[in-house]
Amino acid sequence: MRIFQRTLSRPVQFSGVGLHSGMPVSARILPAGQDRGILFRRTDIGAEIPASVENVVETAYATVLSAGGAKISTVEHFLSALHGMEIDNAIVEVDGPELPILDGSAFPVAEAIAAAGSAELPARRHFLWISNNCKFHREGSMAAVAPSEELEILVTVDFPGTVIGKQWLKFTQTPENFLKEIAPARTFVLREQIEALWAAGLAKGGSLENAIVVEGDKVLNVEGLRFIDEFVRHKLLDFMGDLALLGRPVRGFFLAVRPGHTVNRCLVEHLAGLADLSFGDSQRPVHAAPTELQITA
């Protein structure tokens, strides 16, 4: 477990299209000093948006952040890569309202971070240690957390009547594990959902080059799957991206059943409240009463 904060050793850059906007966009990740956290900078309008759950404004088909009237959309894959590779401080510059989807996974970002290398900073990491159980329900989704000495995540998905079916995966975070096991997993969509997304003005940049398309018992991508359970791996990838909005590393065991950005956000908001109770560099558990909430919004 890394104790001291880290940032990138050098900048890395990317270009592509926004998944929902379809607009061409360029982004780069810059090193940042200690205790800066992750900051999104819209270079086209000169706005800065901290990666914080307090700034989440939409969670329907992507995680969208807003601050000072500026928005940045589809942040979860970049955040997952930074979180998974244990980068605590970085500035993500982007010249449009949405991050590039790249190949639909976090692998291009995580691979670039690994190639650039990380630099240790003199400040200690501000861990949030979980010592009590809490659970959140939203319709058919559930997220729960319990104590653990590591960051452990167990995710399950269930898409009956499709090639996806029921899948589950348990993951213990290390940068090496993330790069190999989680980062390459691509986003996916059911074929029957695509026209509704287009009608809503979404998925304009989606294609077989950046998403897995599932039609019944078939995967329409010619190259097939990168993992037999790529679907649950991508859901875990998204979960880690939303967890990064806590703004600090957390140590606990997470269970996510049919997770989505909205229930993820509710869990992170609760954890952010626990973080307010912590002290110093948080090298001690945070105690709070067990919680169970029914989320209807």
Written description of the protein model:
The chain is built from six helices and 21 strands. The N and C termini lie far apart (about 35 Å). The chain folds into two domains: about 120 residues, lpxc deacetylase, domain 1 (Ribosomal Protein S5, domain 2), CATH 3.30.230.20; about 170 residues, lpxc deacetylase, domain 1. Strand 4 and strand 5 form a beta hairpin. With about 300 residues, the chain is an alpha/beta fold. Helix 1 runs parallel beside helix 2, helix 1 packs across helix 5 and helix 5 packs parallel to helix 6.
- Radius of gyration equals 18 Å
Q: Work out the helix count.
A: 6
Provide the number of structural domains. 2
| Helix/strand/pairing category | alpha/beta
Assign the CATH architecture of the largest domain: 2-Layer Sandwich
Report the portion of residues in β strands. 35-45%
CATH superfamily of the largest domain: lpxc deacetylase, domain 2
Low-pLDDT runs:
277-297
Major sheet: 8 strands, mixed
Number of strands: 21
